[in-house]
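hiii, so i know i said id send this last week but things got crazy w the move. better late than never?? heres the sequnce for the chain we talked about at the cafe, plus the structure i predicted for it. fair warning i was half asleep when i ran it
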Amino acid sequence: MQISRRGLLASAGLALLPMPSLAAGAAQAITASSGRQVLLDEGGPSAEIWCYDGSAPGPLLSVAQGEELAVRLENALEQPTTIHWHGIRIDNAMDGVAHMTQPAVKPGEGFDYRFTPPDAGTYWYHPHTGQSWEQLARGLYGLLIVEEREPPDVDRDLLFQADDWRLTEEGLLDLASLGNRHDFFHAGRLGNVLTINGKPYERYPLRSGERIRLRLVSTANARVLHFRLPGERAWLMALDGQPIPPEPLIGDITLAPGQRADVILDVTQEPGSETAIQEVTNQPLDCASFLTSGEAALALRPPPAPLPDNPLAPLGAEPRQIDLIMEGGARRFLEEASYKGALLSGRDLALEHGQFWAFNGIAGMAAEPFLRAALGETWAIRMVNKTAWPHVMHLHGHHMREIARSDGPPQSQAWRDSVLMQPDTEVTVAFVADNPGKWMLHCHMLEHQAAGMQTWFEVG
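okay and structure toks below
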């Protein structure tokens, strides 16, 4: 299913309001519940969704780097749920993975999360249960900003959270297609309407000469998005929350599910002009726009200084190595794999257990960890995609760097928590196992994860 032109043109939203900060030690209650939201046309019908505190995305959480964040989750859904703090190098007990780091929070119950983020940057939060694919498809997610001790010199800090929804012609959430096995076997659940911050199309007033920080986040279940920003003076500043040397932005920004990008750009458009932000996977389609006012800027600022580094340990010189082989899916049917300790045919895996994918010949979570790392060891994982589909591999509790890639140069300057892999490619990543506990490694195309592409490793 392709994103429709109507869907893209009816989708936008950027936060222009100041970001609230929680006082150190103050707790905030967040309720996961059903709600209603207009997703298709401004003034159109409202769709029933699942969300935090009544809207998707949920409340923006903001905390200073090195200060404690305390959140109380209350579950008013009909399913168990949790909160996973995506991209945060968090204490293992707070990672929010049901049945691994905590029991799932049952309907009518709650759970207290309390942790101190070590890294500044752009992050997000969402459930992490066996039903994550459904809960995120219904709208259950929010953004988390960890503020730098020395923030960059910008006039505004804007949010751009993208999600695709599968809606009916009436603008309601297509609930009948949830759990469609075709999605699990192919690309995952792809929506037909794109929203930015959960809102229909909107123009964003800016002033000529302003310098803005734009935080782009993809919370899509499976779709890889490509955005084209307006203007000629823009710099890529951070990926997945981690700073990179400022890089002039040439071309488009690719965001796989779960990935983030921080951009600083100068508003150089003439006052009175309107310029579009476009999603350009297929035909370029407007998904938001900047409306410029004020007087023409008289002078351009120098390029921005780098964002301050986060305290990540450098990679060791001689990492231990291990392979992760991805198999299965449509067009390359899984012949057999182990599932819960039993070797099964691909047919039985699919028909009886809904498993279509495997890592190293194992579908779903294995009883034993994929690797065991001593605290402080550097590991290199050679990930081999033998499938006909892209996958975005997400590492919990750590960040990784590409050190080799078969389809081009590795993105060696960037620490990522999620790495996009194309079909028939190999990507080798390295990370320092310096966060003790049990951690997941999985495809963040959520239907792929649920249908077999998940494993775990242990540190300490």
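btw The CA atoms of residues 10 and 41 lie 6 Å apart. thought thatd interest u
miss u guys!!
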